[in-house]
User: Fold this.
Amino acid sequence: MSLSPDAGHARGRGTQPSATLRGSLSADELPREKLIAHGRKILSDEELLAIFLRTGLHGCNVLELARQLKKRAGSLTALGRLEASEIMELVKGIGPAKAATLAAVFELGRRAVQEAPEVYKISEPSDVYDLMAEQLRYEMQEHFCVLSLNLRNEVIHRSSIAMGTLSRVILHPRDVFRDPIRHSAARIVLVHNHPSGDPSPSRQDIELTEKLAKAGHTLLIPVEDHVIIGTASGEREPFYSFKKAGRLFTA
Assistant:
Protein backbone atom coordinates (compact mmCIF):
# COMPACT_ATOMS: atom_id res chain seq x y z
CA MET A 1 0.00 0.00 0.00
CA SER A 2 1.39 3.36 -1.00
CA LEU A 3 0.91 6.07 1.59
CA SER A 4 1.50 9.65 0.56
CA PRO A 5 1.36 12.81 2.67
CA ASP A 6 -2.06 13.82 3.92
CA ALA A 7 -3.67 16.58 1.96
CA GLY A 8 -6.30 17.10 4.64
CA HIS A 9 -4.75 20.31 5.94
CA ALA A 10 -5.14 21.95 2.57
CA ARG A 11 -8.87 21.17 2.54
CA GLY A 12 -11.70 22.63 4.54
CA ARG A 13 -11.58 22.34 8.32
CA GLY A 14 -15.32 22.33 8.98
CA THR A 15 -17.08 20.09 11.46
CA GLN A 16 -18.20 17.62 8.77
CA PRO A 17 -15.96 14.55 8.33
CA SER A 18 -13.59 15.05 5.41
CA ALA A 19 -13.74 13.02 2.22
CA THR A 20 -10.44 11.43 3.23
CA LEU A 21 -11.87 10.33 6.54
CA ARG A 22 -15.08 9.07 4.97
CA GLY A 23 -13.45 7.09 2.20
CA SER A 24 -15.31 3.80 2.12
CA LEU A 25 -16.66 4.20 5.67
CA SER A 26 -20.41 4.29 6.26
CA ALA A 27 -21.94 6.79 8.66
CA ASP A 28 -22.18 4.06 11.30
CA GLU A 29 -18.45 3.38 10.98
CA LEU A 30 -17.26 6.97 11.49
CA PRO A 31 -15.50 6.88 14.88
CA ARG A 32 -16.48 10.35 16.10
CA GLU A 33 -20.16 9.84 15.31
CA LYS A 34 -20.04 6.35 16.81
CA LEU A 35 -18.55 7.69 20.05
CA ILE A 36 -21.19 10.40 20.38
CA ALA A 37 -24.02 7.95 19.68
CA HIS A 38 -22.84 5.00 21.78
CA GLY A 39 -20.13 6.20 24.18
CA ARG A 40 -16.36 5.90 24.17
CA LYS A 41 -16.06 2.38 25.61
CA ILE A 42 -17.58 0.77 22.53
CA LEU A 43 -14.81 2.03 20.25
CA SER A 44 -11.79 -0.09 19.34
CA ASP A 45 -8.21 1.12 19.81
CA GLU A 46 -8.02 1.93 16.11
CA GLU A 47 -11.25 3.93 16.19
CA LEU A 48 -10.04 6.00 19.15
CA LEU A 49 -6.74 6.66 17.37
CA ALA A 50 -8.67 7.65 14.25
CA ILE A 51 -10.47 10.42 16.12
CA PHE A 52 -7.16 12.08 16.94
CA LEU A 53 -5.68 11.43 13.51
CA ARG A 54 -8.82 13.09 12.02
CA THR A 55 -7.98 12.23 8.40
CA GLY A 56 -6.28 9.45 6.52
CA LEU A 57 -3.69 9.63 3.76
CA HIS A 58 -4.12 9.37 0.01
CA GLY A 59 -5.37 5.87 -0.74
CA CYS A 60 -5.70 5.03 2.96
CA ASN A 61 -8.70 5.98 5.10
CA VAL A 62 -8.24 7.05 8.69
CA LEU A 63 -9.08 3.65 10.21
CA GLU A 64 -6.57 1.90 7.95
CA LEU A 65 -3.98 4.49 8.97
CA ALA A 66 -4.71 3.83 12.66
CA ARG A 67 -4.32 0.07 12.10
CA GLN A 68 -1.01 0.64 10.32
CA LEU A 69 0.32 2.76 13.19
CA LYS A 70 -0.64 0.25 15.87
CA LYS A 71 0.67 -2.70 13.84
CA ARG A 72 4.02 -1.09 13.06
CA ALA A 73 4.50 0.08 16.66
CA GLY A 74 3.77 -3.47 17.83
CA SER A 75 1.00 -2.59 20.29
CA LEU A 76 -0.95 0.33 21.66
CA THR A 77 1.38 0.36 24.68
CA ALA A 78 4.43 0.57 22.43
CA LEU A 79 2.84 3.35 20.39
CA GLY A 80 2.19 5.27 23.60
CA ARG A 81 5.90 5.24 24.41
CA LEU A 82 6.95 6.94 21.19
CA GLU A 83 7.90 10.58 20.78
CA ALA A 84 6.32 12.54 17.91
CA SER A 85 9.47 12.23 15.80
CA GLU A 86 9.36 8.44 16.18
CA ILE A 87 5.67 8.29 15.24
CA MET A 88 6.46 10.16 12.03
CA GLU A 89 8.93 7.43 11.12
CA LEU A 90 6.40 4.61 11.50
CA VAL A 91 4.29 5.44 8.44
CA LYS A 92 5.43 7.52 5.50
CA GLY A 93 3.17 10.53 5.19
CA ILE A 94 2.45 11.06 8.88
CA GLY A 95 3.23 14.73 9.44
CA PRO A 96 4.15 16.75 12.54
CA ALA A 97 0.55 17.70 13.33
CA LYS A 98 -0.76 14.12 13.54
CA ALA A 99 2.35 12.84 15.32
CA ALA A 100 2.35 15.65 17.88
CA THR A 101 -1.36 15.15 18.55
CA LEU A 102 -0.92 11.44 19.29
CA ALA A 103 2.17 11.98 21.46
CA ALA A 104 0.33 14.67 23.43
CA VAL A 105 -2.75 12.48 23.90
CA PHE A 106 -0.72 9.60 25.34
CA GLU A 107 1.25 11.93 27.61
CA LEU A 108 -1.92 13.63 28.87
CA GLY A 109 -3.43 10.23 29.65
CA ARG A 110 -0.28 9.20 31.51
CA ARG A 111 -0.37 12.36 33.61
CA ALA A 112 -4.08 12.03 34.33
CA VAL A 113 -3.70 8.59 35.89
CA GLN A 114 -0.90 9.88 38.11
CA GLU A 115 -3.42 12.13 39.85
CA ALA A 116 -4.66 9.76 42.51
CA PRO A 117 -8.23 10.35 43.71
CA GLU A 118 -8.59 12.08 47.08
CA VAL A 119 -9.33 8.71 48.67
CA TYR A 120 -8.13 5.51 47.00
CA LYS A 121 -8.45 2.33 49.02
CA ILE A 122 -6.34 -0.76 48.39
CA SER A 123 -8.43 -3.86 49.03
CA GLU A 124 -6.79 -6.30 46.64
CA PRO A 125 -3.86 -6.47 44.18
CA SER A 126 -6.04 -5.43 41.25
CA ASP A 127 -6.60 -2.08 42.99
CA VAL A 128 -2.85 -1.49 42.91
CA TYR A 129 -2.74 -2.38 39.23
CA ASP A 130 -5.66 -0.07 38.41
CA LEU A 131 -3.93 2.80 40.21
CA MET A 132 -0.42 2.35 38.85
CA ALA A 133 -0.61 0.53 35.52
CA GLU A 134 -1.01 3.52 33.22
CA GLN A 135 1.91 5.29 34.87
CA LEU A 136 4.29 2.34 34.73
CA ARG A 137 3.46 0.09 31.79
CA TYR A 138 4.69 2.59 29.18
CA GLU A 139 8.12 2.89 30.79
CA MET A 140 11.12 1.39 29.00
CA GLN A 141 13.07 1.06 32.26
CA GLU A 142 12.14 -0.41 35.61
CA HIS A 143 10.59 2.09 38.01
CA PHE A 144 10.10 1.32 41.70
CA CYS A 145 7.30 3.03 43.63
CA VAL A 146 5.95 2.88 47.17
CA LEU A 147 2.34 3.43 48.20
CA SER A 148 1.96 4.62 51.79
CA LEU A 149 -1.32 3.50 53.37
CA ASN A 150 -3.19 4.53 56.50
CA LEU A 151 -4.97 2.17 58.88
CA ARG A 152 -7.95 2.00 56.49
CA ASN A 153 -5.66 0.95 53.63
CA GLU A 154 -6.21 4.29 51.88
CA VAL A 155 -3.34 5.70 49.84
CA ILE A 156 -1.95 8.77 51.61
CA HIS A 157 1.24 9.19 49.55
CA ARG A 158 2.97 7.83 46.45
CA SER A 159 6.75 7.80 46.13
CA SER A 160 8.93 7.11 43.10
CA ILE A 161 12.06 5.64 44.60
CA ALA A 162 14.34 4.48 41.81
CA MET A 163 14.77 3.96 38.09
CA GLY A 164 16.93 1.11 36.88
CA THR A 165 18.01 -0.69 33.76
CA LEU A 166 15.81 -3.08 31.82
CA SER A 167 16.61 -5.86 34.26
CA ARG A 168 17.29 -4.40 37.71
CA VAL A 169 16.62 -1.58 40.11
CA ILE A 170 19.12 -0.66 42.79
CA LEU A 171 17.73 0.77 46.03
CA HIS A 172 18.19 0.72 49.81
CA PRO A 173 15.58 0.18 52.55
CA ARG A 174 16.22 3.69 53.92
CA ASP A 175 15.09 5.13 50.57
CA VAL A 176 11.96 2.96 50.55
CA PHE A 177 10.83 3.83 54.08
CA ARG A 178 11.82 7.51 54.18
CA ASP A 179 8.48 8.85 52.87
CA PRO A 180 6.27 6.29 54.69
CA ILE A 181 7.90 7.33 57.99
CA ARG A 182 7.47 11.02 57.13
CA HIS A 183 3.76 10.49 56.36
CA SER A 184 3.12 8.21 59.36
CA ALA A 185 2.11 5.29 57.15
CA ALA A 186 0.53 2.28 58.81
CA ARG A 187 1.76 -0.04 56.05
CA ILE A 188 3.13 0.13 52.51
CA VAL A 189 2.70 -1.53 49.13
CA LEU A 190 5.70 -1.93 46.85
CA VAL A 191 5.15 -1.54 43.11
CA HIS A 192 7.43 -1.81 40.11
CA ASN A 193 7.14 -2.60 36.42
CA HIS A 194 8.69 -5.14 34.08
CA PRO A 195 9.23 -3.49 30.67
CA SER A 196 9.27 -6.96 29.08
CA GLY A 197 5.58 -7.26 29.92
CA ASP A 198 6.08 -10.50 31.89
CA PRO A 199 5.24 -9.72 35.54
CA SER A 200 6.78 -12.94 36.89
CA PRO A 201 9.24 -12.13 39.72
CA SER A 202 12.96 -12.56 39.16
CA ARG A 203 15.32 -13.91 41.79
CA GLN A 204 16.35 -10.32 42.55
CA ASP A 205 12.68 -9.33 42.97
CA ILE A 206 12.16 -12.13 45.47
CA GLU A 207 15.30 -11.28 47.45
CA LEU A 208 14.49 -7.56 47.49
CA THR A 209 10.93 -8.19 48.63
CA GLU A 210 12.10 -10.36 51.53
CA LYS A 211 14.72 -7.77 52.56
CA LEU A 212 12.21 -4.91 52.53
CA ALA A 213 9.54 -6.95 54.29
CA LYS A 214 11.99 -7.73 57.10
CA ALA A 215 12.93 -4.04 57.32
CA GLY A 216 9.25 -3.12 57.49
CA HIS A 217 8.71 -5.58 60.32
CA THR A 218 11.55 -3.96 62.27
CA LEU A 219 10.18 -0.45 61.63
CA LEU A 220 6.58 -1.50 62.45
CA ILE A 221 5.54 -0.47 58.92
CA PRO A 222 4.66 -3.83 57.37
CA VAL A 223 4.88 -4.47 53.65
CA GLU A 224 1.29 -5.26 52.68
CA ASP A 225 2.17 -6.48 49.18
CA HIS A 226 4.60 -6.17 46.31
CA VAL A 227 2.87 -5.87 42.93
CA ILE A 228 4.78 -6.20 39.66
CA ILE A 229 3.12 -4.45 36.70
CA GLY A 230 3.29 -6.15 33.31
CA THR A 231 0.85 -6.82 30.49
CA ALA A 232 -1.78 -9.48 30.04
CA SER A 233 -0.99 -12.43 27.79
CA GLY A 234 -3.41 -15.26 27.21
CA GLU A 235 -4.75 -16.34 30.60
CA ARG A 236 -1.91 -14.58 32.46
CA GLU A 237 -2.88 -11.63 34.61
CA PRO A 238 -1.16 -8.32 33.79
CA PHE A 239 0.36 -8.17 37.27
CA TYR A 240 1.98 -10.37 39.89
CA SER A 241 1.14 -10.08 43.60
CA PHE A 242 3.52 -11.55 46.16
CA LYS A 243 0.70 -11.56 48.71
CA LYS A 244 -1.73 -13.34 46.39
CA ALA A 245 0.96 -15.89 45.52
CA GLY A 246 1.66 -16.51 49.23
CA ARG A 247 5.30 -15.45 48.85
CA LEU A 248 5.30 -12.39 51.10
CA PHE A 249 7.56 -12.61 54.13
CA THR A 250 5.75 -12.61 57.47
CA ALA A 251 7.49 -12.78 60.82
